[in-house]
Structures are given as structure tokens and as C-alpha cells.
Amino acid sequence: MTILHSKMTILHHNQLGYRNNQLGSRHYSKVKDSQPLILELLDTVSILHLIHQPIVFHGISDKECEDMLEDILLGRYQFSPILVQHMGYEEHESFAQRDTVVTSAYLGLLRYYPKKKEGYLTFSRPSTEKDVLFIHALEEVLFLDKSAWGYTSLDSLLPEYFSEIKNGMKGVNRIYRLEIDYPPEIGHFLEKIYLLPKTLIYQYITSFWNLSYIDENGMCPESLKGTYTVSDIRRIVMNLILTDIFDDEFRKVYPGVVFTRFVSQVIIGTKESDEVLFNEEKGYALLKSLGLTGKIHSIARGDSPFTIYRNFKLGIK
Predict the structure, then answer these.
(1) Quick one: how far is CA 182 from the chain centroid?
(2) pLDDT tens-digit readout, 115-152
(3) Rounded to an integer, what is the distance from CA 313 to the centroid of its chain?
(4) Angle at 156 between CA 208 and CA 82, to 5 degrees
(5) Between the CA of residue 74 and those of 11, 79, 142, what are the distances in Å?
(6) φ and ψ of 258, to 5 deg
(7) Backbone phi, psi, residue 7, to 5°
(8) What angle do CA 308, 287, 291 make, to 5 degrees?
(9) Please, what are the domains in the chain?
(10) Which are the contacts of 172, defined by CB distance < 8 A and separation ≥ 6?
(11) Is the C or the N end of the chain the one with fewer CB within 10 Å?
């Protein structure tokens, strides 16, 4: 089932959702105006559990799901650390039969890292089935709150991104590739986003952003050093932040300068006719003013093309 399909199911079958059960009627009035996204999240958790329980969520009973919904609404839900495993090739069959592995793979939350440890397959996934359900629901709500109908994931926006680059970079004499770093703390950025300041959604995003990693023994050995994730939430949130913070500021400071962005990668094209000058120095100054960091590379006509997202080559002919 696609994200869009799930969303339509929620909209068309609200009678099955969270708002109309006893718990929903008890608390709905308290949050309907101040925290509308939390209601979307609760509905999405409820519907996803209903739809997928026969296949992957059989370990979460209806009563456990109701208790989980109440914990979410009251701000009591706690994510468990991300589970990371370096697995030998001979372990693959038994690994693939574990409940959270099946659930995570089915809902797109299982991540594979081919070069983390030589001779091993490295995977990351949520530690519990409830985390799988919650994280998947949060991912859907955050993406669909800011996206246009018809898009099912961030990567489904890539063709549009490449098209904008192709059309926007015509006639430029220099192209800049700006890679914006993911901030270690995002609380003050989230406070600037509409509907998110100091809400339960804010609380759960910041909690997820700072999740630690453990192995199956509950330890965090030297071999786990690195960055792991289990969903697109970090990219989705980064996109929300940069849409509201970077994009608007760039247009204000550099009117007429062509740019397009996909999550944390920004492609900027400059022309001699630009009324406002953009260069590396000014780009770094802009990032600093926004509390961001990143790296800027540029090419001119005749330089070797550089690589952008998904090994797409970009140059100036």
C-alpha cells in the first residue's frame, strides 16, 4: 500500500479511526485546535494497525494499540534505541524470519549498509513492532502535511528536481552545489515551522532525531560507530525546515538568482546579468546567519561536471 493510498483510506474511513473510539471522544476537544497533526498521527496509527495487523502487526493486539494511542496522546510514548546488527552471510535466513525484521522490511523501515563492516551485512531497524507502527505513521503524516497530492515519497519528487535543474541552469556561467549539513539539534528550527512549535509532534520528532543505537545485546560497541536511521523522517523533517527557513531567505536575499533544492542539496546557477551577486563567501555567510553549516562547490564553463543526487552529472556546456 502506498502512502497516498493509506492517506485516502484514512480520509474515507474515518469511522474506523481514532477520533471515534472512546479514548478519542474523551480527549479530542483538548487538542483539535492546538494540535491538529497529533490527531492525524493517531488516526494514521489506528488505521495502519487495522489494515496491516493480519500481515505484520499480529503481535500488537487491539487493546495494546489503544494503550499505545493513549500514551502517544498524553506524551508518554518512548522510542526504543535503533537496533543495528552486523550479520554474517550464514545468518541471513534466521535473521529474515524475526518479527521486527519482517515488519520493518514490509513497511520500508529496514535499512542496509553495505560498507559498514567488511565481510558482514549490516542492517538497522526499529527495536519493537510498536516503534515500527509509530515511526511509519509519523513518516506519513509529516510528508503528506506539506506535500502535493500524487506524491508517495520524497524520492518521487526527484524527476521534478532534475527537470528544474535542466531548465533552470540554461544560460548560467557558474553552478554551485550546496550540501547543507543535518543539524545535531533541531528543536529551535522546528519552533519556526507552522503547527509544530512545542507540540507533541515536536516532542516526538526531537526524540526520534536523537535516538541512540544498540546491538542485539543492548550494547553500543565500537563497531556501531556511524550514523544509522530507520525511515525517511530525518529527510522529511530536514525538507520541512529548509522549505520554511532556507528557501524563503534565499529568495529574499538573492532575488532573481536561480536555485532548486532537493532535501539538503541546493543547486544554484548564476549569470552575469544577475542583479545580486552570489558566490561561495556569500553562501557560507547565509548559512551562518540561519544557524546552518554546509559545503559549497562550484564549476564554470569548461570544468569537469560534478555529481549531484543519484549520480546525476551536472556541468555547463
Answers:
(1) 11
(2) 777 777 888 889 899 999 999 999 988 886 544 445 56
(3) 25
(4) 20
(5) 24, 14, 19
(6) -75, 130
(7) -65, -45
(8) 125
(9) 156-183+235-314 (3.30.70.270)
(10) 258, 269, 270, 271, 316
(11) C
